[in-house]
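Thread title: Can someone regenerate the structure for this chain?

I was given the following input by a collaborator and told the matching structure tokens would be attached. They weren't. Posting the sequence so someone can regenerate them.
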Amino acid sequence: MILTVKINDSIPSGKRLIEELGSHPKAVEFENQTTIGDIPDGYVTGEEFVKRGKYKILKYYKDNGC
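Best answer:
Regenerated them for you:
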């Protein structure tokens, strides 16, 4: 059986899990979505999403005199 698991690597327990799983190369294979190439068009990274959101909010405030 093959399982798909999402691990938050921005927290210590997530980093520990990834490190532990990485020590079992016969049983675990890591796939990085950015290298797979099957990300649909229009999807952006979290950083890009925040950047665009800030831009739109600031533009709204400037356009509406806030």
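The first helix runs from residue 12 to 22.
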